[in-house]
């Protein structure tokens, strides 16, 4: 919107040297365009919001803002025979234009652009990315506009963006290191001998990530102690961590648009053998995954390695992963991305430079639990863990 | 799920003394129930997610977790003749049960419960809260289940929760104080004479809020300097703040489930009279709002006071508020709540203990801009600003 060099999309101070560069965004658009027809699509509609931005942030540095109105939403449209368009709130068009390498329009113009595209195609399928969270209101507007075309959820974008570029890996590596620092902060705080609540430890983790340069947390940090560690997912409370407790943590940092997702659990003080065994079993299961992971196998194969280890350890009843709910997921621009989903039945073949988590959750009501979750990158012949914090922890 | 005193919903360490107590949640449910029939409704379906949780968090301490799957969602259902139910992801049922004073079920059971309710009512309207962001997928499932009943967006919940209780006001007060601290941190950093980027200043603000006990930021902090301060909403970049710049900030803290939303702008170093005049005009417009605000007038009346001041100051062309886009919004559990919306045409009457923002944005392309946004509580005969940081800033 502003013609000066200072504010155009290629300015060094607006898009940092560490961030994804305009050329890479352009290349990604070309890759997706090339994949449309072989996928049976005449176009892609990719929805992202402020918090689950990957479908949009794959194409632009722009990420929507927080709100209950349309400032939280963005939509990327690419037709086989038309240039890409980013649709954002009218309030964000100027900013979005600054950091986007192609046309930006307000949602007010969505109808006209989609109608025009639809009028040139008597039939065909538009692939939808973000079908799990696109708002009903926006979905209805799109459907009302595309005439004879079909709008159908399609994995094309999830599959393409599952393989990360060197620039992306460098950023995820930073986010992973910041996540390790959060775990170190929790360990340091707990070692001072004073009582600490779940909430304090979560805050400590967040402060440490920000102190070392994280832009923010990737998601709200989870710290659950004692009986609460047996909840699969929960927010921290004022419960004081007690000697003998199992403690579950699930923490990630965000660095310049990329995130990590990590989980560690530990016993605190003199803990029962029953609780120590849970730590060991989860670590062993993830270790089995680290050993099995390599390009060429399917997500289902990799999942089976962790699942089998959990079943063998005897925790089948107390582990959602042992019961087949999946043992990992893609990570990158969002803490949780759709592919690769490491779960039963997923025939997606793992490829070099996919980045994802490998995890094992064990939750025994009345005893406690934890989730051990590593973030890894697939190498040419194996796996590189991007976080380094140890998995077997007895503090 | 766990019968011990340690983990039930009334435990002091799970729900802190500062937080909303179980009795208050129960009272809110009773208030909404009583309002259903007079509003022409046979029930309420209130949707909330991890980031826009107010519609659900009004009834329970539970807030969904971050994710692309259903862990991010929650749904509150109340029928005229049936007990309340909270629906959450299967993965969150145990935690949600711990902190909720009524029945919690998994989304897997949504169909059965809504069908059963619908089978007892041959017709009637279910009010929907959260219609702007309910996912299409969930909306479709509800529609397919309610048989002859109608599902229609309804403001009943937005209007009831717009008036805050003493416990809520105490929490918003804390969040507001933490937001003031963020502004002080930015001022302190800038006064050291070294160069600082927008991103560093945003990080400084976030670190200060967390250092003083904020659970997290209410939303991603905005700091925009120089030409970028003329964007209505934007994310911080590596642009170094230059002497003479106008700087826009929009920052809020979250404290135990409640948030503040604040904006301040300032000139940095020796700045032109043109830029200083923008700071003065925005402050004067908000000041006009602070003077006009009192119970009994409508949102539209209050909006008119700020809008008129902006028009009179000559910035009509450069201020979205001057052009009628609204000069404030409810704040509480989410940074932006639907009511009271301080905008033209809103005949909602302001009431004591409504909490909302009053704002004036001026953005002059090529010159710069700012948003001055205060968070206030309506008293019996006027207004109490909950933040104290001054509005006219020349650093």
From TrEMBL, chains A, B:
Transmembrane region(s): none
Domain Peptidase M24: 171-379
Region Disordered: start-end pairs: 320-344
Gene3D superfamilies according to UniProt: Creatinase/methionine aminopeptidase superfamily (3.90.230.10), Creatinase/prolidase N-terminal domain (3.40.350.10)
PANTHER family reported in the protein's UniProt record: AMINOPEPTIDASE, XAA-PRO AMINOPEPTIDASE P-RELATED
Name of the featured protein: Peptidase M24
Organism of origin: Lophium mytilinum
């Amino acid at each position: 919107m502003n013609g000066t060099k200072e504010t155009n999309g290629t300015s060094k101070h607006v898009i940092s040297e560490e961030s994804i560069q305009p050329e890479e965004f352009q290349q990604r658009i070309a890759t997706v365009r090339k994949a449309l027809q072989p996928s049976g699509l005449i176009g892609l509609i990719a929805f992202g919001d402020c918090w689950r931005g990957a479908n949009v942030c794959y194409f632009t540095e722009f990420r929507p803002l927080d709100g209950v109105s349309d400032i939280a939403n963005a939509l990327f449209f690419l037709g086989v025979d038309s240039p890409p368009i980013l649709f954002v709130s009218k309030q964000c068009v100027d900013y979005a234009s600054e950091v986007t390498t192609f046309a930006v329009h307000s949602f007010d113009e969505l109808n006209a652009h989609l109608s025009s595209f639809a009028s040139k195609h008597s039939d065909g399928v538009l692939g939808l990315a973000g079908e799990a969270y696109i708002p009903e209101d926006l979905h209805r507007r799109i459907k009302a506009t595309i005439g004879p075309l079909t709008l159908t959820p399609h994995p094309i974008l999830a599959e393409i963006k599952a393989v990360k570029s060197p620039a992306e890996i460098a950023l995820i590596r930073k986010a992973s290191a910041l996540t390790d620092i959060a775990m170190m902060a929790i360990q340091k705080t707990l070692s001072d001998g004073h009582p600490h609540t779940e909430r304090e430890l979560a805050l400590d983790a967040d402060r440490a990530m920000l102190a070392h340069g994280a832009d923010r947390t990737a998601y709200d940090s989870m710290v659950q102690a004692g009986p609460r560690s047996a909840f699969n997912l929960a927010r921290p409370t004022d419960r004081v961590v007690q000697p003998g407790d199992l403690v579950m943590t699930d923490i990630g940092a965000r660095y310049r648009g990329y995130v990590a997702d990590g989980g560690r659990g530990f016993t605190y003080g003199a803990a029962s053998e029953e609780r120590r065994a849970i730590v060991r079993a989860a670590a062993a299961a993830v270790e089995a995954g680290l050993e099995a992971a390599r390009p060429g196998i399917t997500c289902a194969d990799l999942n089976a390695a962790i699942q089998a280890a959990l079943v063998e350890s005897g925790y089948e009843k107390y582990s959602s992963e042992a019961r087949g709910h999946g043992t990992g997921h893609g990570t990158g621009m969002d803490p949780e991305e759709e592919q690769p989903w490491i779960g039963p039945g997923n025939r997606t073949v793992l490829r070099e430079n996919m980045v994802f988590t490998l995890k094992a959750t064990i939750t025994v009501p009345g005893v406690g639990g934890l989730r051990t979750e590593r973030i890894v990158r697939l190498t040419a012949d194996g796996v590189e863990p991007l976080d380094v914090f140890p998995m077997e922890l007895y503090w």
